[in-house]
Amino acid sequence: MPKRILMTGTPGAGKSTILALYNKKSKEVSITNLGTMMLKAAEEEHKNVKDRDRLRYMSDEDIIEVREKALSKIMSGSKNTIIDTHSSVKQGRRYVPGFSMKELGKMDIDAIIYIDASSDDIIKRRMSDSSRKREIEGPLEIDEQRSINLAIISTIALHLDIPIYILYNREGMAKEVAEQVKLITKEVFGE
């Protein structure tokens, strides 16, 4: 039976960069971006959703529907998988958990990797990423989101009785963090 790791972190912490570096070295693990899978599912049903950043403005019911479709596709895979996702989605002043406990129960997650970075590094990365349309936020808002995310993954880990690995992605250290991810996947997946 395949094993699964949730990789999460505050937007701009560097998850996707680290996973791209990791993926160059490890072809036996499937890496899936839940947001991309949700966008594909949303495009079929909701013609006004044209990019991942628009997903968070869908109704709660529509988000649950497209997330369940995406998760069903991910869970049907036969390879060990890292799921690149967010533990929370910020909608103005409101935070929405990235998953319900019901969905998590179906996912059979074996571990969580949380990629963290300083608020200053996150702000710099967000400002230099022209591929995304994110709100401009300061260090207090970033720290708030980091705290919410850590609370959510702690709850998930407690509920599922799984470990959390926290990796710090300091500026210029993505290759080293990708190496740490490789060690964690060997431990969790038994490779």
Oligomer: single chain
Strand content: 15-25%
Radius of gyration, Cα only, in angstroms? 16 Å
CATH topology: Rossmann fold
Structural features, described:
The protein has helices at about 15-25, 35-45, 50-55, 60-75, 100-105, 120-130, 140-160, 175-190; strands spanning about 5-10, 30-35, 80-85, 90, 95, 110-115, 165-170. The chain is α/β, with parallel strands linked by helices. The strands form two sheets. A five-stranded parallel β-sheet has the order 2-3-1-6-7, with helices on both faces. A two-stranded antiparallel ribbon has the order 4-5. Strand 4 and strand 5 (about 95) form a beta hairpin.
What would you say about this model in short?
The protein is an alpha/beta fold and 191 residues long. Helix content is 51%, strand content 17%.
